[in-house]
Amino acid sequence: MPGSTHALTTRVTLAGSGEDQPGWAELVRDEGLVALWDHDLLQLSALSPTPWCPTFTAAVRHGDTIVGAFVGSYRGVRPHAAPSRLEPVLVDMRMPGQGHEASWAFRSGLTRPQRADVVRAFERGVVRALGRTRLAGIAYRNVTDDDLPDLRRRGAVVSQAQGQGTVMPLPATFEEWFAALSKKRRKSLRRLGPMIESQVRVEFGNARTDVDPQAVADLLVAMIERNAPLRVDPRPHMPAAYFAALMARDDVRTITYHQGERLVAVGTLLEHPRHPWGSYWAMVHPRDGGVPHLYFDHFLRYARHAIDSGAETLSSGRGFVDDKVSVGFDVTPLSFVGVPRPFLG
């Protein structure tokens, strides 16, 4: 980009439209983005049983090269209804079905002003795609301190996000990680493995095709409704086809807990050479017949796998911060940036 006369262009496509984003796979590969960024996987969000938040992808190009990728959804003012063509809409910037990860990525090597230019080009593209009189604004969620200067501007509303990010620095060995925990937590985790394995069947592996994706989808819906119901956090529910494709990937490691044939907990770990992160997690609440302490058990297994793989950190998004801190996670601040239409682009 430096010194070039090529203008930035933006292509916006709806999930499920069949339209491709040429160069998207190359950006995902070059920047080491995790599995959720796969364009084919994102298309499956169009099969959501809650279709009032259509997902889109936007690619900002400099010439033929994607320099910024964005994933979001838009929703109207009517709850639980697909937006009409005339209804005002708000763009919600987050990955489909996710509540804790930024949904934009830049090509390495861009300066801070260049990244800001890419953001403005994205916004102009969304305004064109949705209509200047229709688009009310864009809500950027899960903004890190590093990304905040790219998004902050006159007229933007900036506030602390609900919940905070969590990242676990990983030592060289599992033994070092375990020794750094409190005495109380070490004692509870030592008892945990044998106790849990006497009650459930635990399986943890990559490219899983043996898990019922509908059971996973149903478990996650129940978890969302329990902790962040749609009236509070209107993210779309993801379809079974999405989870089937996600869990079948070589770069996704899925942990399952079964009581007989009943799935009582499931989690997905998105593999990365240096920075894997825990994505989806859901479990049957103990009052509904679930098994206590599976939440801590899955973190223990994630940490062991990440350390053995040579990773530097393990991320786990927002929520349940006190529990996560007790097993070695650090808290990272996140912000919310809302940009009304007059200040976009």
What would you note in describing this structure?
- Strands 1, 2, 3, 4, 5, 6, 7 and 15 form an eight-stranded mixed sheet that branches.
- β11 and β12 form a beta hairpin.
- The protein is built from ten helices and 15 strands.
- Helices cover 29% and strands 27% of the residues.
- The protein starts with 7 loop residues before the first strand and ends in a 5-residue tail after the last strand.
Task: Note the main attributes of this structure.
345 residues, alpha+beta, eight-stranded mixed β-sheet, four-stranded antiparallel β-sheet, 10 helices, 15 strands, 29% helix, globular
Give the overall shape, derived from the CA principal axes.
globular
| Beta-strand percentage range | 25-35%
What are the low-pLDDT stretches, counting only 5+ consecutive residues below 50?
Answer: none
Number of helices: 10
Arithmetic mean of pLDDT? 90
> Measured on Cα atoms, how large is the radius of gyration?
21 Å
Question: How would you spell out the order of helices and strands?
Answer: EHHEEEEHEHEEHHEHHEEEHEHEE
Termini gap = 19 Å
- Largest sheet properties: 8 strands, mixed
Question: How is this fold's topology laid out?
Answer:
Blueprint: E1 8-14, H1 24-30, H2 39-43, E2 55-62, E3 65-75, E4 89-93, E5 104-106, H3 112-130, E6 135-143, H4 148-151, E7 157-160, E8 165-169, H5 174-179, H6 183-197, E9 201-206, H7 213-227, H8 240-247, E10 252-259, E11 262-270, E12 277-283, H9 294-308, E13 313-315, H10 321-326, E14 330-332, E15 335-340
Helix pairs in contact: 6-9, 7-8
